Write a sequence for this structure.
């Protein structure tokens, strides 16, 4: 039998690790140069300003801390089928993925192949976590289905 709480938690944990590693890689690349930070995403043209590099670093830092929080909540709360954990991680990841879609994916700055892993992990985590929480309510008979 599938343990939906644990499969959802695992998807949240993987999403978080993907973003911690990705954000960390950009920060490491930026320590070499602004162009190296931009080159992490695509072939970069030389001449990016220091401000653009700082903004990219701030974005990468955001990915690292959001990813770390999602991993923590996934391991501590989602793994135990916590509704509050599901709500918190769904909100954090949902807003992060929404930004990806509207600001990077739809305008064409990032391709579907680059974005699909995080999006699929998010959908799988929410569906699995939602099924797990629903199943608990069915088993306890508290009327929240």
């Amino acid at each position: 039998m599938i343990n939906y709480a644990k499969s959802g938690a695992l998807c949240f944990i993987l999403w978080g690790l993907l973003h911690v590693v990705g954000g960390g890689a950009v920060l490491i690349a930026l320590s070499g140069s602004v162009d190296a930070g931009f080159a992490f995403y695509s072939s970069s043209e030389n001449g990016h300003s220091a401000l653009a590099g700082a903004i990219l670093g701030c974005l990468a830092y955001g990915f690292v801390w959001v990813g770390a929080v999602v991993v923590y909540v996934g391991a501590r709360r989602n793994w135990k089928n916590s509704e509050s954990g599901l709500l918190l991680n769904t909100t954090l990841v949902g807003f992060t993925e929404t930004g990806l879609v509207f600001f990077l994916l739809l305008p064409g700055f990032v391709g579907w192949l680059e974005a699909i892993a995080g999006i699929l992990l998010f959908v799988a985590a929410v569906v699995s976590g939602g099924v797990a929480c629903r199943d608990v309510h069915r088993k306890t008979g508290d009327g929240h289905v």
